[in-house]
Specification:
The complex is a heterodimer of chains A (687) and B (289). Chain A has 687 residues and is α/β, with parallel strands linked by helices. Helix content of chain A is 44%, strand content 17%. Chain A is built from 21 helices and 19 strands. Chain A has a six-stranded mixed β-sheet with strand order 5-6-7-3-8-9, with helices on both faces. A six-stranded mixed β-sheet of chain A has the order 15-16-17-12-18-19, with helices on both faces. Chain A is globular and about 90 Å long. The relative contact order of chain A is 0.07. By secondary structure, chain B is mainly α. Chain B contains ten helices and two strands. In chain B, strand 1 and strand 2 form a beta hairpin. Chain B starts with 36 loop residues before the first helix and ends with a helix. In chain B, 44% of the residues are buried. Classes of the chains: A alpha/beta (687), B mainly alpha (289). The interface between A and B is large, with 155 and 138 residues.
């Protein structure tokens, strides 16, 4: 058979699951469960139940059966808590079908062979289980079978009334026979759904599996090189000598001949633009990767995550939370949770009040401090921050940097990766990387920043978006009712850029979704001007474009050009023109979405907005996680959209850290109300 | 869920014209914040009591037994001070389906039968239908009660204890407990992701001219769209999983604890469990044998 599983780790593992296997199994099983849940609350949801097989089939193609089982157990338990006993049967069924379809895909089986194998492997146990349960609970069996009989008898009775007496009496007799011989008829009756289910789920899974395979050429995350758990971790002083590193399947080295020494009690900043290798260097220091060539010398093991070893904190706040509650997250992975002083660690980072809160309610800055608290309970000797400040607002950033400084003065060696020059200034020394090498001076930005246009721009045009007394309450009439917005009056004009700023929970995301027409406000009206008058935005979804922070979720087709064509409903020349208008090179058109950087993905979404001729665009945190160059590129695109095409920009963000050219009108939200709405000149005068 | 995520909730069912209609919403798996006896019980106790109730009504699905089990659940709802608003609003088609079921069973000819004018209505069929429906409701509400009164973080450590017998047959219980804890943690994120995807789908492919006369999609296009959404959801999930794996490795891998687990079974839990088992045995002895 053709080697279809290429690109996936082919070594046969044994023993417990690795973190990489477990994480994929859990997240994909959760996705399957989420599809199931949605399938139970919408009509014709059975399509979704078939779709729910596919994520588990992905687990089965990429990992061992043990991972499929762990995922299925987790999804069954959680599903039981959400929708009760039906979740147990559907999840088990999805896992069984998924394992089969995955195995079929790995081995390249035909449809017919898959169905034959599936029936041979799945039907006997399912039939036996069904009979066993029916046998074990005779009264419940009688009640259930009576339901079936009564329903059919009722239906046949209706037939009789419309003159189909023959059909009715035959049907009645057939149903009676079936119910009487349940121990045969139920297993036989299960055969049909099993065959159909396998047929449909394989049909749905095969294209999805192909795409997933092409999206992930690199093998799954391997656990760090094992260091001897009997040895006491002793990560510092660490000396790197001519370290070179190349990711598996990568064409170029991420690091080339880097030499560096890190000592206790110092704060070392590592700078450089995206892709310069600074994150890779941080991970090698943390013991997460072994260098491809060169040497790393330490007195003992790096001990990543072990008490007294190395702590590693990442860029994206929500991606590194593992606990359901704040206190759970602090102790996650500790050998003995009962001896951990959770309160003290939380107090150190200023979160002592939040120990019992669910982590899902925390802001980005709070989550990063939580990650530091989780590191502190391990009393690390080396603390590595991999751009931990990049997605946090200015105030949160200051706090984090101060915490890192404190750690260093307590004797911990701290390595802080950042692309922000002012953060490097607080460090004891700074190492700048460019294209995988340490350089003396930071490289000059590749493109000059667009002129900050002091020229007076033409005045604002006519109104495009109007919100009149808009208010919104989630879960109205339940114990979880929550007012998100109250009495919002707002007009956005042509050639205007408005920044909507507010903390977590201020209602800014809700406002963004209302402006995109994705939520109908529970009070008031949200209108868009369509050239012939105003109409409710929700009736014209897409006329106001929305660019999510997580742009990948909006890019559904496999390649860039195809994506723009389908999303905007335009032909190829129009799509190419739109890509050019957002400054994307023509060579990007045939590329696959998953090869793009985060900044490029966001620009593809803007190309779609342009191609679709949307009247306005709402952008959620457009600059989050971009380096200086990415910011400059995006800024010039946005300025051009606004000034040349007159498209109003509504930028939603948790801070005011925007390029000057876009900072024009600031609308501040607090607890669902507008507390300030000013032109920037006025704001400047204020502060 | 819980209005705590970045993505606004309840966006999948936007219906511009029928604004007064209450949205269908998922209200399970959300803690109703109260300070009650039921809330203070150990999560394992509640799971075991629910299992005892399920066993009782499965062995003997009679009205009497349903009344016993239903009273226990109702007592739990009262003690936990669960308001009516916590119950999910089911979509309308669900009630239609129930009514159709009732209608058909009334025609089934199961005795006893009453004559209403020209019609023979089967009270027997209706009784069986009602009993079956009530049984389903009792089971579902008993499960929902656990979700309404238990902080989600307490579920995984409780299961670690309850799964102990499985450990004796060398099943990888610790692995499963970590998986369950992570699944609870990630489910809200994935439900958000599905909402985002559904929003992304709605934002696409409107007519560029501005008139929203969406042409009927062909079956082919619908299938393509399903593939697109599914593949995107899976790819983003795998990316999320990789971040998660990195985070786990940064905490030293899978060997440690997953919860601060302050709650342990106490005296009250033992009392409740003994009472539940006693109730189960006695009611089965009296009502079943």
């Amino acid at each position: 058979m053709a080697k279809r599983g290429s690109g996936v780790s082919t070594t046969k593992r044994r023993g417990p699951l690795s973190p990489g296997e477990l994480a994929e199994a859990v997240v994909l099983a959760d996705l399957s469960l989420a599809l199931n849940i949605v399938g139970h609350v919408v009509p014709f949801g059975s399509v979704l139940v078939i779709a729910a097989v596919v994520p588990l089939a992905v687990v089965a193609t990429r990992h061992r059966l043990r991972a499929v089982i762990a995922g299925a157990v987790a999804a069954s338990v959680v599903g039981f808590l959400v929708i009760g006993i039906p979740a147990l049967t559907t999840t088990t069924g999805c896992a069984a079908f998924g394992a089969l379809v995955g195995a079929a895909d790995r081995r390249g089986w035909s449809r017919r062979r898959t169905i034959a194998t599936g029936v041979a492997m799945l039907w006997p146990p399912i039939a036996a289980l069904a009979d066993l349960l029916l046998f074990a609970f005779p009264n419940l069996r009688k009640l259930t079978l009576d339901q079936i009989r009564n329903g059919w008898h009722g239906l046949f009775h209706l037939f009789q009334n419309v003159g189909l007496a023959g059909v009715a009496s035959t049907g009645d007799r057939a149903v009676d026979w079936i119910v009487h011989h349940w121990w045969v008829s139920i297993p036989v009756g299960l055969l049909g759904p099993i065959v159909l289910g396998i047929w449909l789920s394989q049909g749905l899974a095969t294209p999805a599996l192909r795409r997933v395979r092409s999206a992930f050429t690199a093998s799954v995350a391997e656990p760090p090189p094992t260091d001897d758990p009997t040895l006491q971790p002793q990560p510092l002083p660490a000396t790197l000598q001519h370290v070179t590193f190349r990711y598996p399947d990568a064409s170029e080295e991420a690091l080339r001949g880097v030499s560096l020494r890190v000592d206790p009690s110092e704060l070392v900043a590592i700078g450089g633009r995206n892709g310069s290798g600074k994150s890779t260097l941080a991970r090698i220091l943390a013991g997460r990767h072994l260098p491809t060539s060169g040497r790393v010398e330490r007195p003992g093991p790096a001990g990543l995550g072990r008490p007294g070893g190395t702590a590693l904190v990442f860029q994206r706040p929500e991606a590194q939370v593992l606990g359901v509650r704040v206190s759970d997250d602090v102790v996650w992975g500790m050998p003995d949770a009962s001896h951990v002083d959770v309160r003290a660690a939380l107090a150190r980072v200023g979160l002592e009040e939040l120990a019992d809160r669910e982590t899902a309610t925390l802001s980005g800055g709070e989550l990063q401090r939580l990650a530091i608290a989780a590191a502190l309970v391990r009393t690390p000797r080396l603390f590595v921050s991999e751009e931990s400040t990049a997605m946090v607002d200015a105030e949160g950033r200051t706090r984090l940097v101060a915490l890192l400084r404190d750690l260093a003065s307590d004797g911990v060696g701290v390595v802080h990766v950042t692309h922000l020059p002012n953060e490097s200034d607080t460090a004891d020394r700074t190492v700048v990387l460019d294209a995988g090498r340490i350089v003396e001076k930071p490289p000059a930005p590749r493109t000059a920043r667009p002129t900050t246009a002091p020229t007076r721009r033409p005045g604002l045009g006519s109104p495009v978006i109007e919100l009149r007394d808009v208010g919104h309450v989630y879960s109205r009439g339940t114990p979880w009712a929550k007012r998100a917005l109250e009495r919002i009056n707002l007009t956005i004009h042509e050639r205007e850029s408005a920044l909507i700023v507010g903390h977590n929970g201020s209602g800014k995301s809700t406002l963004a979704w209302i402006m995109g027409g994705l939520i109908v406000p529970s009070e008031g009206e949200a209108l868009v001007e369509l050239g012939h008058g105003f109409a409710p935005i929700a009736g014209h979804v897409g006329r106001v474009g929305v660019a999510f922070q997580h742009a990948r979720l909006q890019l559904l087709r496999p390649t860039v050009l195809d994506e723009v064509k389908v999303a905007a409903g335009v032909d190829e020349p129009a799509a190419r023109a739109a890509l050019a208008a957002v400054g994307l090179d023509a060579s990007i058109a045939p590329r696959r979405i998953d090869e793009l950087s985060g900044g490029q993905m966001r620009r593809v979404v803007l190309a779609e907005v342009l191609a679709a001729r949307s009247r306005a665009v709402v952008l959620d945190e457009p600059f989050a996680g971009l380096d200086l160059e990415g910011r400059a590129d995006l800024e010039s695109v946005l300025v051009r959209m606004r000034d040349d095409l007159g498209i109003p920009l509504v930028i939603v963000s948790h801070d005011r850290d925007l390029p000057d050219a876009l900072l024009e009108r600031v609308i501040e939200l607090e607890a669902g109300r507008i507390v300030r709405d000013e032109r920037v000149d006025d704001v400047e005068a204020h502060t | 869920m819980n209005g705590r995520s970045r993505v606004p909730a309840g966006t999948a069912e936007v219906q511009p014209r029928r604004r007064s209609r209450r949205d269908t919403e998922l209200t399970f798996l959300r803690l109703v914040p109260r300070d009650s006896v039921v809330h203070h019980l150990w999560a394992g106790t509640k799971l075991l009591v629910a299992a005892v109730l399920a066993l009782m009504v499965s062995i003997s699905p009679t009205w009497a037994m349903l009344a016993v089990a239903g009273s226990v659940v109702a007592f739990g709802l009262l003690c936990g001070r669960i308001p009516l608003g916590a119950f999910p609003r089911l979509p309308r088609w669900f009630y239609y389906a129930l009514l159709i079921g009732a209608g058909l069973s009334m025609w089934s000819g199961t005795h006893p039968i009453v004559q209403v004018g020209p019609l023979d209505l089967s009270l027997g069929g209706l009784e069986e239908w009602a009993r079956f429906t009530v049984l389903a409701i009792v089971l579902i509400v008993s499960g929902a009660l656990i979700g309404w009164t238990t902080p989600l973080g307490d579920v995984a450590p409780a299961l670690r204890t309850l799964f102990t017998p499985l450990r004796w047959v060398r099943l990888p219980v610790d692995e499963w407990v970590i998986a369950i804890a992570l699944a609870i943690r990630c489910l809200p994120l994935l439900i958000d992701e599905i909402r985002m995807l559904s929003a992304a789908r709605r934002l696409r492919a409107h007519e560029p001219a501005g008139v929203r006369e969406k042409p009927d999609k062909t079956v082919r296009e619908l299938i393509m769209e399903t593939h697109d959404l599914l593949a995107t959801a899976i790819v983003t999930s795998i990316r999320r999983a990789r971040d998660l794996a990195e985070a786990m490795m940064a905490r030293g891998g899978l060997g440690g604890s997953v919860s601060s687990g302050r709650r342990r079974p106490g005296v009250l839990d033992v009392c409740v469990l003994v009472a539940a088992v006693a109730l189960g045995v006695v009611s089965l002895a009296v009502l079943h044998l």
